[in-house]
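Working notes for the structural subgroup meeting. M.R. asked for a predicted model of this chain before we commit to crystallization trials. I am recording the input and output together here so anyone reviewing the notebook later can reproduce the run.

Input as submitted:
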Amino acid sequence: MSTPYLAALASKRGEVLSEIEELRKQATEISGKLNLKENQLRNLDDLLALEDGRVRDSWQLEMTLVREKRSASFTDQAAEILQQAGKPIHYRELVALLAERQVYVPGKDPGANLIAHLTRDSRFVRVGRGMYGLESWPSARTAAQGKPRKRKAPRKRTASRKRTASRKSRVPQLPGADDA
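Returned structure, recorded in token form:
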């Protein structure tokens, strides 16, 4: 492959990454604006209902619940998914289920970001490799406490590793510093 071709591909890759980052910023801004407008609409509906002295129609109440559910944080949504499942779920599956609900998990790697949030949230507990459950589940608490981390057995030293170790243990002496 020619060098100009590789340079052009690398340049194009950089452009696409920049566009993706810009689109993510825009998506975050739009999501914030959408939440703000939905809250304003909900407040206006509440004020209109109070002025008319009537209770909101059932469809308005349902739309309010849908908006509140959509604007809840993704960790709240993850807790709800786990509660409905009733068993621990792998974080990749959890990300997919959140995406099905159209819940946006920010960051370059949504899975990694979800893990970071789950580990900091006291409602969640890691029960296995990549598996997360709710702390309120007795089985999840015992599973998290009962599994000690496996440590690798120390490697045996070969002749070359022994020589390297013995060289590292030698401390160089400065001239004239024999007897202090």
